[in-house]
Amino acid sequence: MSDAVRAYTVRLELVDEPGELLRALEPIAENGGNLLSIFHERGNLTPRGQIPVEVDIEATPDRFDAIVEALRRAGVNVVQAGAEQYSEEVTVVVTGHIVDTDLSGTLSSIQECGQASVADVSLSAPEGTEGVSSARLRLVTESGGASAALSAIRRVADEKDLRVITPLAGGEA
Amino acid sequence: MRLAVLGAGAVGTSVVELAGDYGHEVVAVADSSSAVVDSSGIDPETVIARKADGGSVGSEDPEAALAADYDVLVEATPTTLGDAEPGFSHVTRALDRDRHVVLANKGPVAERYGDVQAAARDSDGSVLFEATVGGAIPALSTIDDVGADHVTAVRGVLNGTANFILTRMAAEGLGYEHVLAEAQDLGVAEADPTFDVEGTDAALKCVILANVLYDREYTLADAEVSGIADLPGSALDLATEDGRTVRLIGEVADGEVRVGPRLVPESGTLAVTGTRNIVQLDTEHAGRLNISGRGAGGPETASAVLADVGRLARR
Lengths: 173, 315
Prior knowledge:
The complex is a heterodimer.
Chain A: E1 6-14, H1 20-30, E2 34-40, E3 51-59, H2 61-73, E4 77-83, E5 87-96, H3 103-112, E6 116-124, E7 133-142, H4 146-159, E8 163-165
Antiparallel strand pairs in A: 1-3, 1-4, 2-3, 5-7, 5-8, 6-7
Chain B: E1 2-6, H1 10-18, E2 25-30, E3 35-37, H2 44-54, H3 62-67, E4 72-75, H4 87-96, E5 100-103, H5 107-111, H6 113-121, E6 127-128, H7 139-146, E7 151-157, H8 160-172, H9 176-186, H10 194-197, H11 200-213, E8 223-225, H12 233-241, E9 244-253, E10 256-265, E11 276-283, E12 288-294, H13 298-314
Parallel strand pairs in B: 1-2, 1-4, 4-5, 5-6, 8-10
Antiparallel strand pairs in B: 2-3, 7-9, 7-11, 9-10, 11-12
Helix pairs in contact in B: 1-13, 8-9
């Protein structure tokens, strides 16, 4: 592993309270990260009512790992962390008997296939946990790995008789 | 041109009604049990009134319409799968007589494209079928103009009933069954909506597009199809929260045909609302073309039929 400095993007979700942004930035400086830019989406709330913030930093890989760890230790919600040029995001909606077919097992299977990590999960189960429900999953994959990740998630869904609604690739540009 | 119109449903009767406006003459009309033939031109109003009244178009046998002296046979009988009969035989019988055929019926070009093309090669007549894909939308003639070899992918929303249901589910937060019942009350969905909500209708249109784009023959069996029946409202809610929505998208790319519910940006080009359809073409030199409009309806689809008749007249 090279110890050259690289650019990373960290995606955070902050509680809408005074001082939260500063609290999130301190661990970056304290662990030797060079802050390049902050994109603070004030007024744009995530489904959980938090404020999304994107931070670009420069650091060596070792220091970057320490930064992410420090952020998490400080209670900052890190939803995505990685070298910008190596990550790709894909969002899918899964429907069916998600909860009573072991949702966490489904998520683990997706993680274990090694193609993607599950960055965010939103669940909607208006009929209760034993009825038909839906989950929106945000997956982070290596660049170019999205189609392999989608195949993996389809395989897991087939086993549990769930439906996967995938994004249309190339449909909008 | 002198037209023989087979099929007296919404599309067939609209062709009969509008043909005069486009400078053509209808010399025969048949439904499944009767026909009217008049070599000096039938009177559209009489035929339409008779059909609306008693259910038959005339007093002759349907066979008489096939035997009439016409230039173009307009095949607007209901789409059938498998052997695509009786539509397929209507097509070959017209071609055997060196007459042109314009199809509104998807069956022959979706299920037996190779056979139709072979029959057309042996005939002085031609077969056109603009009305089979996207109703009033000039999808096939645009592909013809761009050149099938220069089209790299086609995708779109090709079923108005499914799109109406998805639009209402997302906008009102209602469940599938509820919106389907509403669509049936409005006449947007049929009493048996299977063909539309299971994705079959959209898949047939995509198969026709694939037949036009690629060298090999495609049928419904070559398409990967999933529909929107029983899609939970919660799936649309989650998509909406994330700035997206769900549309039943048909896709023809890299030699494959796929129809299924997909996530698209909520305010994106493909997220047309209500019964509207859209066809999106990726082209080699012309970039991306989007054509949206009414994908069904009697007069709308008849306009595509009559556009084909016009093309044949100019040849």
